[in-house]
Amino acid sequence: MYRGGQGMWSWILHRVTGVGVMFFLVFHILDTWLVGFGPELYNDVMAIYNHPVFRLGEVGLVGALLFHGLNGVRIVLVDFWPQASLFQKQRQLFYVVVGLFVVLYVPTAWYMIAEILH
Amino acid sequence: MARASVHQRPAGGGFELMAWYFMRVSGLVLIFMALGHVVIMHLINSVETINYAFVASRWALPGWRVYDWVLLALAVLHGANGIRTLIDDYVHRRGWRVVWTSALYVLVFGLLVTGTEVILTFNPVS
Asked: Where would you find the membrane-spanning parts of this chain (chain B) (predicted)?
């Protein structure tokens, strides 16, 4: 196993974000299923997502999905492009993932939080 | 370094190799489909405006039902295979592995059935 370092962090974050997204997905499929039972029930359930706690959860969900996707591309690159699997390259690729994540997520989270507060 | 990546390509082929490829192919498709879904539903639109009427107008176009069904199937199977990997890694007692794996398969089946049912049969009341 890993003893610290970028490899361990990307591996842990990939698992945690994956489980988090899957956890939400279960509830999201069930809430969408309720649309088949008519407008009253569905609209009541969707109103729960408007609660500020759920809106913050939504910001976290977007971050988890974005990180999982970007890091997933890194994993595919390492798996299919032998050059990228060199230790030094893997480390650089992880920094690229973190950099892209920050550049994409900070404005997105900013926008989403501003929407909650408005 | 025990592992060069999340999970090394399984030797010997068969189901495990197919699952390994599926994770990578579905993952790349999901980057576009799941992030696209998030941008459309959470950024361009908002959970504040998504209600019954919104779903009814969106699903009036068969293309969105197809998109949502493909997203449902890929996301559930990709997520389920990920959980299967976690069970493999963390649950060592044979009895508990059977319990967790069975629960996972029941959950996957239930999610695919309920999701497919609502996408296929939804018919808005006016």
From this structure: 21-44, 64-87, 99-122
